[in-house]
């Protein structure tokens, strides 16, 4: 996480804006789904959301983002320069406009705004939801029971043990319905 000691900060910093005094919940209500998407859709903006904890300089933040892009290693000069320019010209002004950071382009200073905490909370909720969905019931039982049911229907239609085939098909149908009901029930509870 990027943090600049208070001794390195300028004494003439601007007072906090009203958006930086909002709670994450209040700020989240002002961040539309389109804004949240716009912030999180880009790798460099996601890195800024992840790294920025305190006021820092553009240079320090750009070096950290470049390090992330280099996989934690030392980035080359071209990568550092590219990150610096795009952060200055594109990403930080956009994040400032959205209320996620406060960016002073003249002094090259960046600090978190209330929207940053709201974006992090939203990102964490998405990660939690994705994890829960990945741990949900496997689709394999549905597929297996579906194939068993289709096999039973085909066997019944062909006249091979028609009564038993229809019982197998009906059982497979009820099994799929039961699994689906269980999945819906557990999703609503948890």
UniProtKB/TrEMBL annotation:
Tree of life domain: Archaea
A Pfam family it matches: DUF7344
Keyword entries, A-Z: Membrane, Transmembrane, Transmembrane helix
Residue ranges of domain DUF7344 in the record: 37-111
Record field: compositional bias (Polar residues): 16-32
Segments traversing the membrane: 140-160, 166-185
Region (Disordered): 1-34
Protein name (Swiss-Prot/TrEMBL): ArsR family transcriptional regulator
Organism: Salinirubrum litoreum
